[in-house]
Amino acid sequence: MPTAEVPMKQGLGYEPCTFMTVEKDFGTPDDFREMINESHRHGLAVLIDQVLTLNSSKSRSPWYNSQI
C-alpha cells in the first residue's frame, strides 16, 4: 500500500509526488490514521517501509533542480 501520493498508477508506490498525504486510491490521511489507531487498539504494530531515494520530478523543489 503506497503511503504517499503517486502520480503514475504503475509506479507501485515509487516516485511519489508528495510524502505528505496518502495515495488517494487507498483513502484519506484520516483513514490511514484510523487504520493505525485501530491496529494499535488490537495490539498490532504498524511498520512503514518507505523508499525515500526514488522521488518524482514533480516533488523536487526549485532548489533541487537548480543544483543539477
Automatic annotation (TrEMBL):
Domain of life: Bacteria
Keyword field: Glycosyltransferase, Transferase
Domain Glycosyl hydrolase family 13 catalytic: 6-56
Database matches in Pfam families: Alpha-amylase
The protein's Enzyme Commission number: 2.4.1.18
Gene3D superfamilies the record matches: Glycosidases
Keyword Nucleotide-binding among record annotations: no
GO molecular function: 1,4-alpha-glucan branching enzyme activity
Coiled coil: none
Top-rank EC class of the record's enzyme: transferase
GO BP field: carbohydrate metabolic process
The keyword Nuclease belongs to this UniProt entry's keyword annotation: no
SUPFAM superfamilies: (Trans)glycosidases
Name of this chain's protein: 1,4-alpha-glucan branching enzyme GlgB
Organism from which the protein derives: Sporotomaculum syntrophicum
High-level lineage: Bacteria, Bacillati, Bacillota, Clostridia, Eubacteriales
Underlying gene: glgB
